[in-house]
Amino acid sequence: MYPIRLLMFACSLFGVGAAHAEWRYDKQAIMGTEVHLQFWHEDTAQATQITRAVMDEFRRIDGALSPYKEDSELSEVNRTAGKSAVKVSDELARIVDKSLFYSRQTDGAFDITYATVGSLYNFREKKQADKKTTDSLLEAVGYQHIELDRDAGTLRFADHRTKIDLGGIAKGYAVDRAVDILKKYGVTNANVSAGGDARLIGDKRGKPWLVGIRHPRDKSKNAAVIPLENTALSTSGDYERFFIDDDDHRVHHIFNPATGKPTDSAIQHNGPSSDAQNEDAQKLISVSVIGPQGFDTDPLSTSVFVLGKSKGLALIERMDGFEAIVIDANRRMFFSSGLGNR
């Protein structure tokens, strides 16, 4: 029996046409960030096909939803929806509809019309809208200006100055679409991420995925490492796109729609003074939300960041199936009740 068993073992490793299962990796610059893909697959040729399909989908979504591409559907909407109703794709209508849902859930803390003022900022060139311009445009900021007709498939802005940006939801949506593709190909273990948004299929072949939450003030370190599987995680932080202004404030890309300015996350002092601690206790510098899909965790992480610690965590407590980890401006970490406040 020994020779037969040995032969069977050899065939399982080196048999003609046998597939070699292994982890497949890819990384590409898409949607203004790095898209990372890791999945387990036994066939090299099909793994290449899967990788291409996933990355092509990210590029397709970027081409449709980028506010920086003149020929994107989103750019066309921003040019014309303030004048008359615009016919939109089912995809864009669905994303706007989900955005409006979270605007209502958060009393406007999540609001894609922040772009009315936010589009005037250039973080690479350290440019921001001045107070006069911000004040003049503030009344055009507000999700109530968005008139979406799902039945007719049209979108209109009640104020001709209103613009929208899907930066707080599009990457979460994209990682979900990537997961749909991976599952269609039968992939059962995968990790796909785009910037601060990640989605996991299964576990890491018998072990949980260890997902790091970046330290908001030291990119070489993690503030926390969480074991996860079959879930989504989105992180919003004031360190992703920012510059320091002349008053030593961090000007970042997460806007408070109520003010038309970046959410105040604290002055850039080396350590908070005792006078600043109470004020900074509500200001956040990093928010991570865990939940079933990126289409929800992405807007929720932005929402919690804008709402601040108390209101933000209260929002998560009201939402079934979601947990959050927040870091305040005093660099203290807090957890929603399902994770334990430790």
Question: What this model shows, in words?
Answer:
By secondary structure, the protein is of the alpha+beta class. It contains 10 helices and 17 strands. The strands form 5 sheets. It has an 8-stranded antiparallel beta sheet with strand order 1-2-6-7-10-15-16-17. It has a 3-stranded antiparallel beta sheet with strand order 3-5-4, with helices on one face. A two-stranded antiparallel ribbon has the order 8-9. A hairpin with a 2-residue loop joins strand 6 (190-194) and strand 7 (197-201). The radius of gyration is 22 Å and the shape is globular. Residues 1-18 and 266-273 have low confidence and may be disordered.
Oligomer: single chain
Which secondary-structure class do the elements indicate? alpha+beta
Please tally the β strands and state the result.
17
Order of helices and strands: HEEHHEHHHEEHEEEEEEEEEHEHHEE
Q: Let me know the average pLDDT.
A: 90
Shape label: globular
Q: Report the C-alpha radius of gyration, rounded.
A: 22 Å
User: What is the strand content?
Assistant: 25-35%
Distance between the ends? 58 Å
Q: Major beta sheet, specifics?
A: 8 strands, antiparallel
Strand arrangement, largest sheet?
1-2-6-7-10-15-16-17
SS field, number of helical segments: 10
